[in-house]
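Box S1 | Example of a co-folding query
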Amino acid sequence: MLLGNNGSGKSTLLRILGGLLTPQAGEWWIDAPVGFVFQNPDHQLVMPTVGTDVAFGLVDEHLPLADIRARVDDALAAINLLDLKRRPIYALSGGQKQRVAIAGAIARHCHVLLLDEPTALLDPDSQIDLVMRVRALVKERGLTALWVTHRLVELDYCDRAFLLQAGRVTDDGDPARLKAILQR
Ligand SMILES: Nc1ncnc2c1ncn2[C@@H]1O[C@H](COP(=O)(O)OP(=O)(O)O)[C@@H](O)[C@H]1O
Ligand SMILES: [Mg+2]
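Box S1 (continued) | Returned holo structure for magnesium ion
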C-alpha cells in the first residue's frame, strides 16, 4: 500500500508505473503485464454488461470465442462476480463496478494491479470487502497489487506499506508500524 498527503505524488507514481505518463527523469521497470484500476470505475467501464466489459479488454488479442469466454468466466469467478455476468453495468454498486474493473485486468492476465484509491467512493462495508478480495487474489494467484489509500484501516490487509512525501518515499516497511505513526 502507498500512502501520502494530497499532492505527494501517489497518482503520478502509479501513472508512471502503468505507462500512462512518461517521467522527465529517472528509470522504472515492471517485468509483467500491468492492469490499472481507477478511483472512479465509471471512467473505465465502457460496455453495457459485466461480461461484455471484461471481454472488451481482450479484443486486441484475437482469441477464439471459446477462449474469450473461458478467460472472462475465470476472471469473474476470481473476484466472485460470475453470478453478475449478464448484469447491466448501470445496475451495479460502486464496489461491484470496482470488481468488474479488476476482473478486466485478471482476464488480460495482468500480474501487477495498480489501484489508485479504489475505495474512495465506497461505503465502509464495500471498502473492506474490496480490500479483502484483492488480498485473496494476491495470495491465491501470486499477483502483486500496489494500492493507494488514505484510509488507515486498510493497512491491516497489506504486507508492506510506503509513505510518500513531496514525491519521495520517506518510510517503507511494516504496515502496523506505519499505521501507528500515522495515527498519532
Ligand atoms: N502530468 C503532470 N505534470 C506535472 N505535474 C503534475 C502532473 N500530474 C500531477 N502533477 C503534480 O504533481 C503533484 C502530485 O500529484 P498527484 O500525483 O496527483 O498526487 P496525489 O495522488 O498524491 O494526491 C501535484 O503537485 C500535481 O499538481
Ligand atoms: Mg491521487
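Strands lie at 2-3, 34-37, 112-116, 144-148, 161-165, 168-173. The mean pLDDT is 95.
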